[in-house]
Amino acid sequence: MQKRSIADVDVAGKTVLMRVDFNVPQDSSGAITDERRIREALPSIRSVVDRGGKLILMSHLGRPDGKVAPEFSLRPCATRLAELLGKPVLFASDTIGDDAHAQAKSLKTAGVLLLENVRFHPEEEIKDKKATLDQKSAKDAFARKLADLADIYCNDAFGTCHRDNASMLTVPQQMGSKPKVVGFLVQKEIQYLSQAIARPVRPFVAIVGGAKVSSKIDVIRALLGICDRVLIGGAMSYTFSLAQGGKVGGSLVEKDKLDLANELLVAGKGKLELPVDTHVGNVRWDSDFKRLEEIKEHRIVPAGQVPDGFEGLDIGPQTAAKYTEFIKESKTVVWNGPMGVFECPPFDEGTRAVAQAIADSQATSIIGGGDSAAAIEQLGFADRVTHVSTGGGASLEMLEGKKFAAVEILDNG
Predict the structure, then answer these.
(1) 37 carries an active-site annotation
(2) Is 130 labeled as catalytic in the residue annotation?
(3) Number of CB atoms found within 10 A of residue 340's CB
(4) Spatial separation of the C-alpha atoms in residues 5 and 39, rounded to whole Å
(5) Could you confirm whether 212 is annotated as catalytic?
(6) Is pLDDT above 80 for 411?
(7) Residues 3, 14, 19, 37: which is the catalytic one?
(8) Based on the number of CB atoms within 10 Å of its own CB, is 213 exposed (0-12), middle (13-18) or buried (19 or more)?
(9) What pLDDT was estimated at residue 5?
(10) Catalytic residue among 97, 246, 250, 393
(11) How far apart are alpha carbons 155 and 148 in whole angstroms?
């Protein structure tokens, strides 16, 4: 998947339309609480600015469902980007309207303009395979207005590369023979993730956690075909435990996926590693079951022996030690999904142990976005791993070996 990059095109005096991923978390006041995605886009942005190009940025933020929603405005991102760049960043109050058109037309050399949230337009998220002719026509018209703003298209939004959104796929389709390239972030993501699949240095260990077997079934199957070991943690391990006849108490399980878990156990014989002990708790959650409000009691029990009134919330210390040894022996490690409720001590210990082992290892280490990226950042190990992906869903699909139409359409290198 060698693609031409932004470094390969002459941008001097030309306008570059760059799709970035500024979908960053904000607090109730609108302040950005994690700016990593903005920082990751800086190399591509500076490449255009420093070489005398004119840069128009577009991104989504949140899920406004095709309507203008002030709480999802990209204006705070423009403000923060200006601070990081040390130069003004213009902001258009619309995406394809009069303000965007006027500011794009008057943009000066080395100038930067950020358009308002592309998801304020319903055309952005129309699914190609389900679109009516009228919807397809509207999506094409929306994309054409964006494409007409620039001489060059650049995709530097890995987190949405697996989607057929207008700004990701239809815009480059509408660019015709104009250059269509990847930014440095997408180039780096493709390099690490595709290389991990195609040419892993062995032993190759994958660690898969998170809540549901069903959401990661395809990636587990794919990894079993190429890895030497696949280590399972998180709530999905309780579905495997129940499938083997274990007791899971009040743990989060997918009772309709037991046959699926058994299939994976058979397919992964000799490779699939499950927890041997579990950190359980008698706890009280908030009304949305998103935050632990009270820990009444917690203890370590053997895997498959979760008492009634308790639920599994982390791997236990024996499992953490076992997984650490596998990681120590590895030459390539891919991690996607935490080992437990890492946001809430003491149920962060398993995730911390795995993160520490990866940070201490000599392996090429790839952290697959989403909660794993949040965990490695929160635990302070991000600068001690090889690569932290900016895309949870995209990294999963790339590990499954899927091709991305939004990348395939770009110019080959």
Answers:
(1) yes
(2) no
(3) 29
(4) 19
(5) yes
(6) yes
(7) 37
(8) buried
(9) 97
(10) 393
(11) 16
Please choose, from the candidates 387, 325, 340, 332, the residue with its C-alpha nearest in 3D space to the C-alpha of residue 363.
332
pLDDT of residue 245: 96
For residue range 235-279, what is the model confidence (pLDDT) as tens digits? 999 999 999 999 999 999 999 999 999 999 999 999 999 999 999
Which of the following is catalytic: 212, 221, 328, 384?
212
Q: What is the pLDDT of residue 198?
A: 80
Q: Report helix, strand or coil for 276.
A: coil
DSSP designation for 216: T
Helix 392-399 and helix 370-378: axis angle, to 10°?
120
What does the pLDDT read at residue 288?
Answer: 72
**Catalytic residue of the set 53, 281, 368, 370:** 370
Taking the C-alpha atoms of residue 73 and residue 23, their distance in angstroms, rounded to an integer, is 10
Residues 294-314 have a mean pLDDT of 96
- Interhelix angle 217-226/392-399, rounded to 10 degrees, is 40
The C-alpha atoms of residue 196 and residue 201 are separated, in whole angstroms, by 8
Q: Which residues contact 383 (CB under 8 A, 6 or more apart)?
A: none
Q: Considering only 81-90, 108-117, 121-130, 284-293, which range has the smallest mean pLDDT?
A: 284-293
Q: Are 369 and 37 in contact (CB under 8 A)?
A: no
CB distance 30 to 71 below 8 Å:
yes
Q: How far is CA 394 from CA 15, 117, 258, in A?
A: 28, 20, 26
What the chain holds in terms of domains, given with CATH numbers, is 6-188 (3.40.50.1260), 200-399 (3.40.50.1260)
Annotation marks residue 53 as catalytic: no
Q: Which tokens belong to 254?
A: 């997918």
* CA–CA gap between residue 312 and residue 373 (Å, rounded): 22
Q: 346: cis peptide before it, omega within 30°?
A: yes
| 294 CB burial (10 A radius; 0-12, 13-18, 19+) | exposed
Tell me which amino acid residue 140 is: D
DSSP string, 182-209: E-HHHHHHHHHHHHHHHSPPSSEEEEE-
The three-state secondary structure class of 19 is: strand
* Strand, coil or helix: 272: strand
- Exposure of 6 in the CB half-sphere (CA atoms within 13 A): 33
Start-to-end C-alpha separation, the chain: 9
Query: Within its chain, how far is the Cα of 10 from the centroid?
Result: 30
Task: Determine the length of the chain.
Answer: 413
Q: Phi and psi at residue 196, in whole multiples of 5°?
A: -60, -35
Distance of CA 383 to the CA centre of its chain: 18
